[in-house]
Each structure stands twice: as C-alpha cells, then as structure tokens.
Amino acid sequence: MTPVTTFRDKHVALFGLGGSGLATAHALIAGGAHVHAWDDGETGRAKAASQGVRLDDLATADWSQFAALVLTPGVPLTHPTPHWTVPLARAAGVEIIGDVELFCRERNAHAYGAPFVAITGTNGKSTTTALIAHMLREAGRDVQLGGNIGVPILDLEPPSDERIHVIECSSFQIDLTPSLNPTIGILINLTPDHIDRHGTMENYAAVKERLVAGAEVALVGVDDPYTHAIGARLAANARPEQRVAPVSGLRALDWGFYVEGSEVYYRELGHPPEEAELLGALTGARALRGAHNAQNAAFAAAAGWECGLEDEEIAKGLLTYPGLPHRMEEVGRIERALFVNDSKATNADAAEKALASFADIYWIIGGKAKEGGIEPLRPYFSRIRKAYLIGAASDDFARTLDGALPYERCETLDVATQRAALDALAEGAAEPIVLLSPACASYDQFPNFEVRGDTFRKLVQGLPAIIAAHRGGKP
After folding, report:
1. Quick check: helix, strand or coil at residue 427?
2. What is the pLDDT of residues 28-44, one digit of tens each?
3. What is the pLDDT of residues 417-427, one digit of tens each?
4. pLDDT of amino acid 473
5. How would you class 438 by CB atoms within 10 Å of its CB: exposed for 0-12, middle for 13-18, buried for 19 or more?
6. Sign, CA torsion 24/29/34/35
7. Burial of 308: CB neighbours in 10 Å, binned 0-12, 13-18, 19+
8. Residue 277: pLDDT above 50?
9. How many CB atoms lie within 10 A of CB 344?
10. d(Cα 301, Cα 128) in Å, to the nearest integer?
11. Cβ distance 429 to 384 under 8 Å?
C-alpha cells in the first residue's frame, strides 16, 4: 500500500467503492485522512462498511468541510452529464481528483523523481504496460505494475528511488490527475473511443495528451494522425528539461524508436540509417505476433532504453514475454495444433488483429454481437479453414459466412472447442490454429470475457482424453 499522507488530518469525500475506490479509502485512512465514503450501490457500501470505512451520504453532507472529492474513474466527470457529486463539489470550491493524482502527490512530497512510467493510448496499453514491467523485472529491477491494469495504484508499494512504477492510465484516470508528471510518459495511439464520456474526439485526445505533456521523457506514436500531431506540438514547445521522441511500429524513422521488418531500432537524430542501434528482434517472440504488437514492442523497447537497460536486456524481455491472459494467449498445443485464447476480442476490430496474425485458422466465434457484426472481417476469411458458431450471434454470423467459408453451428463453447480440435488434427495444415476470437461480448453465456477465456483454457486441457477416445472409436 501507498499511504496517502498529503491529506493527513483533512476531511476527504470519496465516491465509488469498487476495487480502486476501496484501495483509495484504505490508503487515505492509513495516511491519517478522515474519509467520508459513499456509493450509489448498496453492495459497495456494505463491503466498505465491513472493512471499517466510514460511510456518509454525500448528497446531504456538509461540503464545506472537505479538502477534496476523490472520484472513481468509472464515474462521469463531464459527459454525458456530470455525476451528482460533481456539481456539489464545484459549488463548494472542492477540487475533484482521482487515485493516480493521490499517488503523484505522494511521489512529489516524499520521493520526488522516483522512476514512474505511465502508459496510455486507445489500443495496446495493457500489453505495452505488462511488457515494460516484464522487461524491467527480467533485468532485475524492482517493479510495481498496476493502475488501469490489475492492481489499483494505491495498493502498490510506495514510490522510491530504487523502485519503478509502471502504470497504465485510462483517459478517465488522466482526467482526474492534474499534476500527472511521470518520468516517462507513453502515448501509443489514438482512435475514436469513449466519446460518450469526453464529448468529442478533440476532448478525448486533449485528455490523453496531458499524460505526455507533463512527462520528463515523452514517447509519442506517429502511426496515426492524432498522436502524430500531438508529438509535433510537444516537440515544438518542449520544456528545456523535456525530451520528446517519436515511436513507430510501422516504418523506419529519421530518428526515434521504430520497427523495421522484425527488428526494433533506435536511431539518433542526424545519424544515417546504418548507424541505427538494434535493440531487439521480434522473431521468436510468440506473444508479440502481428503489426499491432510491433507497435507495442517498439514502445516497450523505448521505455526500457530510457530506463537504462542494455540492448541484451531489452532483447531478452521481448523474447520471453508470455503475453496477457485472453489476448492471443497460447493456452496449449496438441500434436501440430496450437490453441489460442483471444477471448478479449469482443468486437470485429479486436478479432481482426488475431486473424491477421495467423493462418490455417479453426475459428470459434460468437456470443452477444456488437454493431456491424463480422462483415468487416471478410478480407481475412481466406485465412480461415472453418468457423464454429456459438451463442446468440449464430444466425447473424451464419448469414455473413454463407458461401464464403465452411462453418458449423455448435451453440456452446465446449462443443465448438471439441469439433475445432478434431477437425484441426484431421486435416493437413503444418500448424493449425484453434482460435477463440469471438468478435462478440460474452454475456449471453458467460458473465465476462475472462470467464469465457478461462473456460476455453480448461476445455483445452481436457482435450487429449477426448481426442484419444475419438480415435479409439469410443462414444
């Protein structure tokens, strides 16, 4: 835990009692603050009360006593309409902040300059965050990994000169962090997302820009027009002590960090291409397949280089990275067949990345369909040997697949996994891929994509006995 001492003896309103909210409440209490917590849900309030957190209905509270309102990131600050606590706080002149801001204030007060790597972007931020943490740990560094990925930031150990915090930040968290000033700030990419919570794409991009604007070293993508413009603006207006470096996963750069072919390079400004420094190769990095992961790898290598890692340590980190659960996760191999859990692919855009990364695919697909269905994936149908349809989207997806590729209606994941495995092993591909990349939400049959992916993993573990029985002619 990181006790929040910067509000010692002060009264703090806290709204939202999920995982990060409870962690924040305990960190404030540990630091000596008087916490007045509330949640719109009875379940959250009951859990907080059972852990000794004081509850106060903020709708009837005396707001003049509060030094701050700490808001959970899931609560609207501006759009579509501010949460009801927001106008109460503003009317009383109470600042509105989040848990990452509390961490930044502790770092500034007690460990100024402690290593802090903050990562954001529309896509790839979880993989990049986990890859950076893995790379640093493999090199023997003391790493704390959390934020929007996994552990709430205030549940991590406190900042110190010998410890590197690697923190994923969502736009909602950045919006609540006015003093965000990481050692290394990373902005991977930007595409329209969360517009309902930010109002416009311009507002969304402006929030994301704040993470790199306050960084000592700003690593900014150049592979989309939004981040390209942000990087150019930051470079033109950089503070004397600030360094802004471009990063690309798609092409060689005149200077900066980039991937060319399957290798990650750093090229000094003004140096010719042949003097670019090879930081590591992606050949053999099975968890970093695909063009989208080339971009993630370029950023991770850049962060490792800026943290002082040797080229050999960066290369080792890339090759040994195991990947994140449910994101093109290799969960097993049976004879020639590889089984890949991409349950996190809850829409066509996410499934496209997996389909582009493999061939000879036996594709398990379906669930609760998103708008647009799988029609955008038609250019990848030639990579697919057969599709196995499950869940509520089966009828819609069958209409799209009719005449384009073979498919089978399986209804449930267990049936689809067994049929796909038997077909993959019966046909002649050198490395058939049984791929769960559903392009759908999970909640027609599963509570979330994690449970769906975990179920697939368990089903794969049970396949050898099923395959043996099938080959033996048993029922």
Report:
1. coil
2. 999 999 999 999 999 99
3. 999 999 999 99
4. 63
5. buried
6. positive
7. exposed
8. yes
9. 22
10. 10
11. no
